[in-house]
Design goal:
Layout: E1 12-16, H1 18-27, E2 35-39, H2 44-51, H3 55-70, E3 77-79, H4 85-90, H5 96-107, E4 118-120, H6 123-128, H7 136-139, E5 144-149, H8 157-167, E6 173-178, H9 185-188, H10 190-207
Parallel strand pairs: 1-2, 2-5, 5-6
Antiparallel strand pairs: 3-4
Length: 210
């Protein structure tokens, strides 16, 4: 709001994947965001509670680790996903979405050289307690554009996007399913990304008018 080139009446917000959930959470109490777009949005808390084999045990382990670190132990950092497709194969992983994630984040040209693929173990406490969409019916009033990949999978992005759309009480809400696209296709494949960009340009142009 203090930057001279920012029009404070025309601020939009866009969130992708877990960032979509974070964007919604931020917009709930920040009406200065005038229009909200999401692509394969996910509520990271719900996703982890669904995907972790025993998240209650994880919370118990987090509690022990907090105590250990308070007493001087080194912080524990665990891999988000397998470090390579070879590691995934050796672990017996065959879920297509997870293998696509490993390919994209660890072995493709899009892999960031500074990425360690490590998460502070104690962060699972905050993540497992996170709720992106719970207050949407009460607080989300801005126009919203929800974009999902039409191919469903283990990430639950289609179901999360549908839930977000259904919960939103906004007068102007829009839903686009990009047929044939999976979760990670929506990150970088031009034939799918272009459809999302075209829709978002139209959406923001309509709802961020002066």
């Amino acid at each position: 709001m203090t930057l001279p080139y920012v029009d404070d009446a025309r601020i939009g917000l866009l969130g992708i994947c877990a960032g979509g959930g974070y964007a919604i959470k931020a917009a709930l109490t920040e009406p200065r965001f005038r229009a909200i777009g999401t692509i394969v949005a996910n509520d990271i808390g719900e996703a982890l509670r669904r995907l972790l084999p025993d998240f209650r045990q994880t919370l118990a382990d987090v509690a022990k680790q907090r105590t250990a670190e308070a007493r001087g132990a080194a912080p524990r950092r665990d891999p988000w996903i397998p470090d390579s497709l070879k590691d995934a194969e050796e672990a017996g992983i065959d879920d297509p979405d997870l293998l696509e994630a490993v390919t994209f984040y660890r072995e493709s040209q899009y892999r960031h050289p500074n990425s360690t693929n490590r998460l502070l173990f104690t962060s699972y406490g905050g993540l497992l307690g996170f709720d992106a969409f719970g207050l949407v019916p009460d607080l989300l009033t801005q126009p919203i554009q929800v974009i999902v990949g039409g191919r469903r999978g283990a990430t639950g992005q289609f179901e999360a996007g549908q839930r977000l759309f259904d919960l939103s009480p906004a007068e102007h809400k829009h839903f686009l399913s990009v047929e044939g696209a999976g979760h990670y296709d929506m990150y970088y494949k031009p034939e799918y990304v272009s459809q999302a960009v075209e829709r978002l340009v139209k959406f923001y142009s309509q709802h961020l008018v002066a």
